[in-house]
Amino acid sequence: MSAAAHHGSDYHYAHHFDSLGQQQSTVRFGMWLFLVTEVLFFGGIMSAYTVYRTMYPDDFEAGSAALNPLAAILNSFLLLTSSLTITLGVRAAFDGDIAGLRKWLMATILLGTAFLGLKANEYYTDVKEGLVPTKAEDVIEVAKSVTVNGHDTIVYDKVRSSVFARKLEHVLKENEHEQLFEKCNPYRVQLFFLFYYCMTGLHVLHMVIGLGLLVWQYILAGNGFFNFKERYVYVEAMSLYWHFVDMVWMFLLPLLYLAGPHSFDHLSL
Amino acid sequence: MTLPIPFPTIPTQASQFAIESDHLFWYITLLCVGGTGLVYVMVAYFCFRYAKNPGARGHVGLQRTPRILGSVKLEFLWSAIPTVLFLSCFAWGIWLWGQNTRIPPEAAQNEIYVVGKRWMWKIQHPDGTREINELHLAVDQPVKITVISEDVIHDFGIPAFRQKIDVVPGRYLSTWYKPTQIGSYHIFCDQYCGQGHSQMVGTVHVLSKSDYEQWREGTYRTKDGKNPVDGSAGWLGAKLFKKLNCISCHGADNTQRAPRLEGIFGTQIPIGGGKTVTVNDDYIRESIRNPMAKVHEGWKPIMPAFPVSQLTEEELLQVMAFVKGLRAGETPSRVEHTPPQIGANPLNSEGGSK
Amino acid sequence: MNLDYAPQCVPAPEPDPTKPRVHYLNHAYGWLSWLFTVDHKRIGILYLVTVTIFFAAGATAAALVRLNLLTPTSELLPLDAYNKAFTAHGTVMLFLFLIPVVPGVLGNFFVPMMIGAKDMAFPKINLLSWYIFMLGAAFFLWTLLSGGIDTGWTLYPPYSSQYSHTNVLYAGLGIFVAGFSSILTGLNIIVTVHKMRAPGMTWNRLPLFIWAMYATSLIQMLATPVLAVTVLLLAVERVFGIGIFDPTLEGDPILFQHMFWFYSHPAVYVMIIPGMGVVSEIITCFSRKNIFGYAAIAWSSVGIAVVGFLVWGHHMFLSGQGYYMGMLFSFITMLVAVPSAIKVFNWTATLYKGSITFEAPMLFSLGFIALFTIGGVTGLYLGVMGTDIHLHDTYFVVAHFHFTMVGGMMLGWQAGLHFWWPKMTGKMYSDFWSRLSALTICFGFFVTFIPQFIAGYNGMPRRSPSYAPEYQILNVISTAGAFIQGIGYLMPVFYLTGSLIYGRPAGNNPWRATGLEWQTTSPPPQFNFDETPIVTCGPYEYSLTSDDVYKHIPVPSTNGVHTGKEGVHA
Ligand code: HEA
Ligand code: HEA
Ligand code: CUA
Ligand SMILES: [Cu+2]
Q: Does the N-terminal or the C-terminal CB of chain B have fewer CB atoms within 10 Å?
């Protein structure tokens, strides 16, 4: 948001530009370039994800099956709707309709906040279920039938067991996917969860920044900053960012939540 | 040691590969000296030939220079010629690389394991001799080298052989040497690995055939053959196999819980979903560190994982040697009490070289 | 007025020396006028001051490293202190000095001026990126003060993530933050070049420095985000003791190397292309000739930038990445070396039939050509898979990258600084001392780093405080060279600073150069040009007179060599 000096009553573009058109196209171009760098940012981590996913397909399926896709799908609807509202906001700003602009900005803010709320709830559940990568191990006793002197008897072996593995087993059982647990290596499932937290975490961070910018523009709109129609270009740049964040989510959804089978009977929010 | 040379110029070529490597090295040097020399000569010549008379500096209208904008022909020439030269290096280079990685069968029979651990090299010969920071080789005898790290990334480098290989945790990498010149040469760790990196050095001794035999005698409890009396890697592995209770499942007297490991090395086993896997070093290692990774079809995934804390990389190599050498009917039994081996020297049953 | 060269626009008249003049340095005073400036020129000066300090810090670490290597047994420093010293040297030199130096100082200052703009496209973001840079630097400083880090600048896990006891986290944060500054600077420059060019400044009339900065910015924008996310993943592993590069989870530490070099190989071109741009400007100016092969030089910059993204694996031949992967990377490495060769040959050809003078900028530029060529060709040994087996991670690599980075970019930077100093400050420095400095640095440089090639070929591993005794003689020579070099670097500190006070006024255009930045007053006015320049010809019309251009007379070719387009180069 650079250099929108506001001299007097007429709208002036910043000192270093020759025309309004130049300034507007510069702002737009700058935002597009910024988004290119963002693509590389998420692209980096998604490539890493892809590498592991191809190396360890079963384990990533199991990890995905332990997640709650219902929340994610609801969230997708929220975000898609917010992309619509922000676009309507750009339209309003372009038409100089300040009330409309404020209305649509507020709608976008609410939808974004709802997304974060759902997401927070989901994190909370994940943590409660123990789906947090850890190297912790404890000793458990496992019953085994052994043949001793021709008789089958049960003995209890003390076995060191990964805490995470047991939590994962539990969750997958609840989701009726214990067959996935048998196939997976819980260590590698932890890799999946590391990706899950890093990728969604980065996305949440982008959402929070986006919401901050939205709130700021909402306040600016109230202060009459957007009374100059020409400044709609800032709302437009903002909306580009918001669409981008939305799009990242549309990639995360299949990568993280839809990688494994799901049965929807056991889902809850 | 034959090391101190007052002013190092060309290091000893102590292996087959060193000679081949140096051929390419000097070929590239020739090109580079040629190319760089050309640039230097031209720059120097132009600078003298076209230097402006200092007195004339700043005078308008003197000495107009020709307005030369470029030449497509020249551009083409000086793109094409370097490309061709560079690619010739490339082609030779991949050939040379192939020499380094394609392990001939006579080397594969003689496999030496190197475990990198901050900050030492632990070396294990096929017959169980173990050394630390020292590697004895027989001249002209090709050996395969397989490396793995117990902690961070190291790199096992022997300049006199012009060879090195990264030592990575969690995976085996292999190369091979054919030493051709008797002598003692440096082993360096060439990948930064922390405080003691510069001291993670060792010596490789290339011995004549007879010296090599003598060295083996001298260091080492020998009993040729496969009998588990000899302190070989397999023998140590057998002990671990019992100590770690592998036999509680893989033992001779229990056939329902786990597969027999006899003769599995080199075979193909099904792992479900129609897939098979060849039993090799990596698979055995994985089966022990992470049994869940690939489960032998028809068996339950009940085998516990054995992390480094229970079984070091070195010990793992011993267990591996044991499993590899296990032939039909040799699986030890859980209840068996092996009497002390005849001829086994208790002093030699543990510990490193010498 | 007829000039014996054809400037890109009508030059401004020399100001009356007796009358006080308002320019960017004196239109406002006080700390705040600097700290809150959005003027690209002042921001450039801010970078100049800060990166110079960081260079001194990095050089001090280099001095420690070299002193310690005088003896084979590491008598000066304990082992881990040495490890911290070379890591500090590498990280500070790269992230706080070499990457920001030319884009930050010369790029900021001259990109707008050379295309005839009043400022960068986003002046506030420009200032912001300086602050972000300083924040990153603060994290580094904190790392160094709180005991340093000992991972090497490459930060390979699992050492960096699970074993090192030092403050990797803060250093990582520093890299992460400084990276954003780099991204924003790159973005700003690209937008500026696209959107802010003066009338008549077509793409074919852009000075080659602009092309170089454009290519550099492209890399900064596309590669740095990947570094950011890589460092972030490393930080996660460091903080939680568990992460995606962790081999005990069957994670792959080699993946880190892939991601790191995906950034860091292109980044080495961030560290050379700007230098190449500077040299292209200077060679033509001091041989009074059009650049030979304008298009070839311009597009080879872009070519290096693009193809440079596909060769990262040549740092990892030995890591077990696989034969065919290595083959591919080696092949592309050979191809990416070609554009550099093209540039070197074009510079050489530019000298042909020139009218050459040897002021300090030219000496530094010739030094650049001499040293970079050696640095570049030794890259071939490393890019060829077979020879890299022996040379990987030895002093051969150390010598290679100092030849490219110090012999290349560092000299390029010095050349640029000396070339544009009169424009930036309005003062001329001492001719004698500046030439002496150039010669001293080049001489010291050879003495320092040629022995390292020999040591490397003999197998001396890098990052080693102690080494086998037979390498001592080479190391002693090398240390001696470093001190000669050090003296060479210290000289400019004195004569350049001195010139601010004692230097004679430089005039608008002391080198009689053609670029737009020289057609305004020195130091430039607050908005660069008193009147918007109108560009009438290509950037390097040293063989035409101003009359030729302003009357648009086609000039016949004056010799047998094919001269490309006849008449004014459009
Ligand atoms: C400014 C920085 C810079 C530049 C420009 C380069 C340029 C090149 N580099 Fe370098 N490199 C580094 C900085 C740089 N490098 C650094 C910092 C490292 C170490 C990182 C670390 O591990 O810490 C490194 C390491 C490095 C390696 C890894 C070595 C190893 O660890 O084993 C390799 C391997 O391929 C390599 C290759 C090359 C090549 C082929 C070029 C080419 O682009 C060079 C092209 C130029 C020319 C070829 C010269 C001009 C040509 C002529 C004049 C033609 C005449 C010649 C002939 C006909 C032969 N470099
Ligand atoms: C911009 C990049 C840059 C620059 C300019 C330099 C400059 C120099 N470097 Fe650097 N170097 C690197 C980048 C750079 N280096 C990198 C990236 C590494 C790899 C790090 C790693 O492995 O992780 C490295 C590693 C490296 C090593 C290998 C360490 C090892 O592997 O063990 C050595 C050894 O000789 C060395 C030496 C030098 C020398 C002698 C100079 C000389 O040119 C410096 C000359 C200057 C002086 C000698 C001092 C002058 C004095 C002042 C300016 C005032 C300072 C004040 C006081 C001394 C009081 N460097
Ligand atoms: Cu081990 Cu360096
Ligand atoms: Cu590289």
A: N
| CB distance C89 to ligand 2 below 6 Å | yes
Nearest CA, atom 51, ligand 2 = C486
Contacts of A129 (CB under 8 A, 6+ apart): A66, A167, A170, A171
| C-alpha span between A228 and A247 (Å, rounded) | 30
User: Taking a C-beta distance cutoff of 8 angstroms, is the pair C336, C297 a contact?
Assistant: no
**Distance between CA B130 and CA B136 in Å, rounded?**
10
Structure-token pair, residue C519: 């057609």
Contact between B234 and B320 (Cβ < 8 Å): no
Question: By the 8 A CB rule, do C276 and C237 touch?
Answer: no
Distances in Å between the Cα of B67 and the Cα atoms of A78, B70, C293, C541 are 65, 9, 12, 8
Ligand nearest to the CA of B196: 3
Note whether C528 and C459 are within 8 A (CB): no
Nearest Cα residue in chain A from B300: A182
Q: Which residues of chain A lie closer than 8 angstroms to C190, CB-CB?
A: 33
Euclidean distance between CA atoms B185 and B3, whole angstroms: 7
Phi, psi of A12 (to 5 degrees): -115, 145
> Where does C408-464 have alpha helices with state H?
411-425, 431-457
Using DSSP, state whether B84 is helix, strand or coil: helix
d(CA C404, CA C412) in angstroms, rounded, equals: 10
Threshold 0.90, pTM exceeds: no
In C16-45, the residues whose Cβ lies within 8 Å of chain B are none
Contact residues, A window 29-68, toward B, CB-based 8 Å cutoff: none
Measured between alpha carbons, how far is A212 from A228 in angstroms, rounded to an integer? 22
Q: Is B304 in contact with A159 (Cβ distance < 8 A)? A: yes
Contact by Cβ (8 Å): C522, C12? no
Phi/psi region, residue C200 (left: phi>0; alpha: psi -120 to 50; beta: rest), is left
ipTM: 0.89
Nearest chain A residue (CA) to C233? A198
Question: Which atom belonging to ligand 1 lies closest to the Cα atom of B82?
Answer: 58
Is C438 near ligand 2, meaning CB less than 6 Å away?
A: no
Residue identifier of the C-alpha nearest atom 41 of ligand 1: C379
The verdict on a CB contact (< 8 Å) between B198 and C463 is yes
User: Is A151 in the C-facing interface, judged by CB distances under 8 Å?
Assistant: no
Q: What is the pLDDT of residues C274-319, one digit of tens each?
A: 999 999 999 999 999 999 999 999 999 999 999 999 999 999 999 8
From ligand 4's centre to the CA of C314, what distance in Å?
Answer: 6
CA dihedral A159, A163, A168, A171 (to 10 degrees): 100
Q: What share of chain A is helix, strand, coil (3-state, %, to 5)?
A: 70, 10, 20
Query: Quick one: which of B161, B147, B154 has its CA closest to B113?
Result: B147
- CA–CA dist B128, B348 (Å, integer): 11
User: How do residues B41-86 score in pLDDT, each as one tens digit?
Assistant: 999 999 988 887 655 544 444 567 888 888 899 999 999 999 999 9
Nearest ligand 3 atom, CA C463: 2
B148 contacts B124 by C-beta, under 8 angstroms: no
DSSP A16: T
Residues 6+ apart with CB under 8 A from C283: C291, C347, C350, C351, C362, C365
